[in-house]
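Much of our argument rests on the idea that a fold can be written as discrete symbols. In the encoding step, the backbone of a single protein was reduced to a row of integers, each denoting a local shape. We regard such an encoding as a compact summary of how the chain folds. The record that follows shows the chain in one-letter code together with its fold in token form:
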Amino acid sequence: MGLPLNKIEKIFNEGYDLGCVLLAVTGGEPLLRKDIPEVFELAKKTGFSTILLTNGYLLPKRISELQKFVDSINISVDFPDVRHDKIRGLPKLLERIVEGIRLSKKYGIAVNMNCVLTAQHSLEDIRRLMLMAKELDTTVSFEPIFETPTPDGSILGSMSKKDANLLKINDWSFVKRVADMLLYYKRNSFGKTVLNTDAFLKLMRDRADYVCFPFSMQLGIAYNGDVTSMCVLGMQKDYLGNALNQNLKEIWCSDKAQALRDKYKQCRLARKYGCYLLCVTEPSLPFTDSSVFLEYVKRVI
């Protein structure tokens, strides 16, 4: 169902007044929502830059409705062949993704393909995804799947232990080889194709801890208005408030929110669990690594 537009408008206005500039709409699958064009239109009228996160299945059908209001699209692409369709349970999904990407590029919309590395991947899979991204004139990003510290040992807290064991990366040397390969390709003609920064790839390669800032530059708002941080690992998200009943600035500036920020900065679970979630790790790095800013600048020159 999701929130009605009038409730979404309240959240958008308060978020913009708070200083938010970028809005990412995810799900579930956002394109299942019939009035998703109206949601993005409202976001643009409010003043946001917009990102759509999607599995891409409905993209060819709906991109014409969205093209005026979406600045960029992030699509999950697990494999460069029919294995992607199989793992997602959607026949011809990759074919529809490619069609949707081509249509999006015709409208001038930036597209990124994101791949979650698992034990089922090979270096050749990664290379083929890079070549696919270059041919389609998109970017591609990679992040390793990781195991959350839950009683059943599931990945991201939702998979069965049996499925998790098939995907879990037990040999981190594979991740090191992937990172080294990506760093090499970035220096040799793929610098604007691979979205990951050098700092992220080196952090992932070395399986190092880092200072996490998941609630310093971003916040998450659920389908029911609940406000949480973006962390999905072992540290409790905590209920920070509800954007339908409270002002976002009140929630953002609360003592509870500040206490949570301080708590996250002490997190040292990345090395232990391999937590390098792209949407949390990459935005955290500029706080501690100035080279990230330089790479961002070089990317747009």
